[in-house]
Specification:
Helices cover 26% and strands 36% of the residues. The chain is an alpha/beta fold. The chain has one domain: Roll (2,3-Dihydroxybiphenyl 1,2-Dioxygenase, domain 1), CATH 3.10.180. The strands form two sheets. A four-stranded mixed beta sheet has the order 1-4-3-2. It has a four-stranded mixed beta sheet with strand order 5-8-7-6, with helices on one face. The two termini are 29 Å apart. This is VOC domain-containing protein.
Length: 138
């Protein structure tokens, strides 16, 4: 059964940066903000909100610990693309938005046939975002 939605917690001081990075990097596949019920929680997606970003206050040390956890323990999230071109567009847009290359667009046969992906770490928390296309090249 597919995942319906996912919640990602980030330090409050990095919240808007992570949201802006995702909106900029994934805009070309229709990714947008759908719902912000409170200033520190936002629902993002391409047809409906399925990725919820929540800010964690940093005053009690939890936000700082969360930032270390996100970057040091390889938090990873993958988005599906329909074409190899969309994967390449993500990589280009994410790097322009300040992301750090963590794997240029290309085939990854070790993960399966037609596994074409790119990986970029966001500049705020170091979260490893991936866009993958499993279709054959056009």
């Amino acid at each position: 059964m597919p995942c319906d939605h996912y919640s990602l917690q980030v330090p409050e001081s990095k919240f808007e940066d992570v949201v802006a990075f995702l909106l900029t990097s994934l805009k070309h596949i229709g990714f947008k903000e759908f719902y912000r019920p409170i200033p520190t929680c936002v629902g993002l997606g391409d047809g409906r909100p399925y990725l919820w970003i929540q800010a964690v206050p940093e005053g009690d040390g939890l936000g700082e610990a969360l930032e270390i956890l996100l970057s040091k323990h390889h938090t990873h999230m993958a988005f599906t693309a329909e074409t190899h071109e969309q994967v390449q567009e993500f990589h280009t847009a994410a790097l322009k938005a300040g992301g750090k290359d963590n794997g240029a667009p290309g085939l990854r046969p070790q993960f399966g046939p037609n596994y074409y992906a790119a990986f970029v770490k966001d500049p705020a928390c170091g979260i490893n975002f991936e866009v993958i296309c499993r279709a054959e090249a056009s």
